[in-house]
Every structure is written in C-alpha cells, then in structure tokens.
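User: I'm preparing a small set of examples for a lab meeting where we compare how different chains pack in three dimensions. I only have the primary sequence for this one, and I'd like the structure in token form so I can line it up with the others. Please keep the answer compact; I'll paste it straight into my notes.
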Amino acid sequence: MFFLDLVVIGILEFIEAHSLKGHSLKTLIEELGALLKEKKLHFILLHSSFFFMIFLIINYEISSFLITTALLVKALDIAFKLYLIKRIDENGHFSIINILGVPDIAISKSLKYSGIVIYPLLFALGAS
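Assistant: Understood. Below is the structure token output for the 128-residue chain.
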C-alpha cells in the first residue's frame, strides 16, 4: 500500500510539471498568474501532491525529519510562486530583473520534472 502512495505522489508531481508549459521562470510565473486569476480551483488542484502528502502524514501518523523537509520544501515552492505571482503587473507581465535582480532563468526539463523523484524519495526515506 505504501508503494502505491509513493506512485501517486510521483504521478501528481508529473501532472504538475507537465501542465506548466513555461520554459523560463518569467513565462512560468506569468502562466501561473493567469491560471490563478482565472481558475483558482485549478491552481489549487495543480499542487495536489502537497495536500496528498499532508493526508499521508496524518493517515500514517508519520513525524520524520525527511518528510517534514519534503513538505516544507513543497510549501516554500508554492509560497515563492505565489510571491512572484503577486508581483505581476496589471498587464499580466512582470520583470524578474526588478524583483529578484537576476535575468530571466531558463528552466530545463530535468529541473521541471525533478519533483517526480525528489518528493517520493524523501517521503520513502522518511517513512522507513
């Protein structure tokens, strides 16, 4: 049963990564901002692996450092995205240089899909 839970976390992470078409941080945040503005429920469901991990922690009564770390990293990821979305101007664009002081950052496929490995792995190591 536990293996199935890890597979579900991986699938939810894959859906999140595959749903976002942005190839740079700027386009990704603009896409997420438009999604949050138009379809709030879809934005929340896009991060369903976070809520599923909370459910598993409560269901299995797990209190491990690695699982807490996985949950914290996921929460910080969502919070960082929401912070950047909040900085989008009224035209639906934002300047990453003005906010972070760095040029637009390209997001490789390996970075985009890294959550498929990281979160189930941290969860498995923490639960064992």
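A couple of notes for your slides: The radius of gyration is 16 Å. The CA atoms of residues 17 and 111 lie 10 Å apart.

User: Perfect, thanks.
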